[in-house]
Design goal:
2 helices, alpha+beta, about 35% strand, four-stranded antiparallel sheet
């Protein structure tokens, strides 16, 4: 699950944000926290379910497998954080 979440969040940041990306992983006894910062100020939103849509399902996948998902604006860009129960 961790590889999937990292892959989806980093891919989204790389695809939609200009400039650098910062990946932070924090592990404690209960959760792995995966945080991805990028320079794009636009906050992502999960799309409605559409079985005919090809692609653009990364955020929905992360929401489905993560314990929780937060998106917060930063002074520059945004940070998307998913916590996965270990």
């Amino acid at each position: 699950m961790a590889q999937l979440v990292v892959s989806e969040l980093v891919t989204n940041a790389h695809k939609y944000a200009p400039g650098p990306i910062l990946l932070t992983l924090i592990l404690d006894s209960e959760f792995l926290e995966v945080a991805v910062w990028d320079s794009d100020p636009v906050l992502p939103e999960a799309s409605t379910v559409d079985p005919l849509r090809v692609g653009r399902q990364g955020l929905e996948i992360v929401q489905a497998v993560a314990h929780d998902l937060t998106v917060r604006p930063e002074p520059v860009g945004k940070c998307v954080t998913a916590r996965i129960r270990v």
